[in-house]
Amino acid sequence: MQCSLGRRRLSPHGGWASLHEDLVQLIGWRVLAAGDLLDYTRFRAVCSGWNAGAVSPRGRGLADTRFHPRRWMMFPEGHGLYPGHPDLGGYVRFVNLSSGDFVRVHLPLFRDSTDVAIDSTDGGLLLLLQKHDVAVRLVNPFTGDVADLPPLLPLLPLLEPQRGRRLSCISEYHTFLELSIFRTGVCAAVNVTAAGEIIVMLAIDRRHRVAYATVGDRQWCLSAWKLPRLSARTMALQGKLLYAAAVNAADVYIYQIDLLQQQDGLSLPPPKMIAKCPLVGKIGSAHLVEGASELMLVGFPDASREHLEVYRVADLASGKVVPVTNIGEHAIFLEERGVCVSANKGFPSVLGNTVICNHRQTRQVDTCNPWERLSSCSRYDQFDLDSGTWSPALDADILHRDRAPARPYMLGHHILTCCNRYYWNTGLIFCSPMISR
Questions:
Q1: At CA 268, angle to CA 314 and CA 275, rounded to 5?
Q2: What pLDDT, on a 0 to 100 scale, did the predictor assign at position 154?
Q3: pTM of structure
Q4: Are 252 and 275 within 8 A, CB to CB?
Q5: Is residue 83 a contact partner of residue 417, using CB atoms and an 8 Å limit?
Q6: β-pair partners for 291
Q7: I need a surface site. Which of 6, 193, 234, 389 has the fewest CB within 10 A?
Q8: How far apart are the C-alpha atoms of 227 and 203, rounded to whole Å?
Q9: Distance between alpha carbon 293 and the CA centroid of its chain, in Å?
Q10: Per-10-residue mean pLDDT, the chain, length 437
Q11: 308, 312, 309, 319: which is closest to 292 by C-alpha?
């Protein structure tokens, strides 16, 4: 019996493009699990057969958590270009905090500036507030899926009775201004039930309350309890809300807020303490950060603010906390919220194993006003976790009293703007003075 040792010729109708649909979908699911929604989109774009064989994410971008983006943030352009600006043509850029990739997405909801972004959650989902009726929308920017949530206006009298009584006699524009507590001070967590119901929790930090609603509800439900004075801004992780608060002067406790599904509906039990860290409990001295799907707490161990410590919550269930002395190629930016980026992949101007934050110090200031020459300036330095030393993180002070840092801005300026929701809809970079330039 003869056998050929030569190469077997492929059938002209064979090859990768002719894979069976079940196999194409199996490969697609693995691409999605190991990578990102955009990797899955690129996989489907290889050929018409793969596009037909793999499920389209459109229409599933909110109800199916597999199609939620991962570690994407809306990128602030600066130069007065806010989302919805006519010069952007309806496009918004996003940056991936792990890979450094940039994508430009067409989002017509920002057209004519009728919607403003009030939060980015669950890896890149946007929470938008409509100006004309203050309704809330949850958007997956990469699939175009939109879900409507109840208006926030009915919550205002419950949170601020004095201001709430004025709403019936002021204009639509001033009503929108009255909702400033929602535009700059909320944190959203998105949860999807087994039945496909989309539930959103809102931590309203400035009023120490939490609200929740399911897509399709007519109104928000408000927590019966209040949040304590927070040491760190509330953050969302895996559909839950997390916050840090000081119980005593030497420890910071991490609490978890999670909805409880009961036979008669949803309820919001009081927060549950899950971990304790030996950090100074002063407000603003500690920050919760998500890094590589892990929860970290970063802060100062004493009032001198000369040394930073990082703790990793190894297990949310047991509350096990592990001190971390090396975060590898990652860098952590701390401002209103904390952001962890992969420095070596897409952020060449950022040093790995560092923490960039506001490192206040009293020093001589170059200003025309003699009363302001000696003052405490906001200076953003980077702390090297390996050597324990501080060094300048940016070319100039973030907030200077009488001038803005020189352009072009560093990538660090843009990342710090990602950390501060106040600037998202202004077109300004965090280092800019609060005037239109």
A1: 20
A2: 86
A3: 0.86
A4: no
A5: no
A6: 294
A7: 6
A8: 9
A9: 13
A10: 47 69 93 91 91 93 94 91 91 93 92 82 90 86 96 84 61 62 84 93 92 95 91 89 86 92 87 89 78 86 86 85 92 92 83 88 47 52 94 68 62 89 86 45
A11: 312
CB neighbourhood size of 194 (10 A): 6
The domain segmentation of the chain, as residue ranges, is 15-56, 57-423
Q: What are phi and psi of 155, to 5 degrees?
A: -75, -25
Two tokens at 12?
Answer: 């002209």
pLDDT of residue 79: 87
The residue type of 211 is A
> What's the pLDDT score for residue 214?
96
Bridge partners of 361, per DSSP, are 377
Taking a C-beta distance cutoff of 8 angstroms, is the pair 397, 377 a contact? yes
pLDDT of residue 348: 83
- Please state whether 192 falls in left (phi above 0), alpha (psi between -120 and 50) or beta: beta
Question: Per this entry, what is the length of the chain?
Answer: 437
**Rg for the chain, CA atoms, rounded:** 24
Number of neighbours of residue 5 by Cβ within 10 angstroms: 4
Q: How many CA atoms lie within 13 A of 205 on its CB side?
A: 23
Q: Which two tokens stand for residue 138?
A: 């949850």
Token pair of 39, please? 């990797």
Amino acid in position 33: A
The C-alpha atoms of residue 316 and residue 263 are separated, in whole angstroms, by 26
Structure token digits, residue 27:
């490969």
Identify which of 333, 339, 343, 326 has the alpha carbon closest to the alpha carbon of residue 291: 339
Q: How many of the other CB atoms lie within 10 Å of CB of 22?
A: 9
DSSP state of 300: -
The helix/strand/coil state of 335 is coil
For residues 334 and 291, the answer to whether their CB atoms sit within 8 Å is no
Backbone angles phi, psi at 223, to 5 degrees: -65, 145
